[in-house]
C-alpha cells in the first residue's frame, strides 16, 4: 500500500472513475493520504461523485507518472466519518481548508478496501499489489 500511496503522491493528479446509473464518470482528483493503515481519498459530500460512490462504492483510479509508468487501482470506497481521518487529510492538503473543515457536514473521506493495484510500463512486468 505504501508503494501505491507514493506512486499517487508523485503523480499529483489521478483520475477517479465511478458509475452513475449505466454511465461511467471520470474526473481528476489530487488527494491521497495514509491514515491508520488505510489509503484515503477525499471529496465533498454534496458533490455528485460522493453520491455515485454511495450508490455504488466500486471505483477505479488511474494515473500516469512522468517516467512512463502508470497505475490502475480497482477498489471499494468506504466513507469514514472519523474526524481524525478528516483532520489528517486536510493537514496533508492545507489549501483545501478554505473549502473544507473536519466535521463541517461536507468533508468526506473514503478509504479503499478490497483493492488491487497494478503498476505497469511498456518495459517491465506489472507489479500487483492488494490491500
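Sequence proposed for the structure above (131 residues):
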Amino acid at each position: 500500500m505504501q508503494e501505491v500511496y507514493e506512486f499517487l503522491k508523485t503523480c499529483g493528479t489521478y483520475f477517479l472513475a465511478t458509475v452513475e446509473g449505466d454511465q461511467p464518470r471520470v474526473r481528476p482528483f489530487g488527494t491521497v493520504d495514509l491514515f491508520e493503515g488505510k489509503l484515503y481519498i477525499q471529496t465533498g459530500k454534496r458533490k455528485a461523485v460522493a453520491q455515485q460512490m454511495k450508490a455504488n462504492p466500486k471505483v477505479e483510479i488511474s494515473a500516469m507518472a512522468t517516467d512512463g509508468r502508470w497505475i490502475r487501482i480497482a477498489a471499494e470506497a468506504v466513507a469514514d466519518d472519523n474526524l481524525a481521518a478528516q483532520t489528517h487529510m486536510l493537514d496533508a492538503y492545507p489549501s483545501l481548508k478554505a473549502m473544507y473543515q473536519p466535521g463541517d457536514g461536507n468533508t468526506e473521506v473514503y478509504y479503499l478496501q478490497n483493492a488491487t493495484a497494478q503498476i505497469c510500463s511498456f518495459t517491465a512486468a506489472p507489479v500487483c499489489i492488494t490491500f
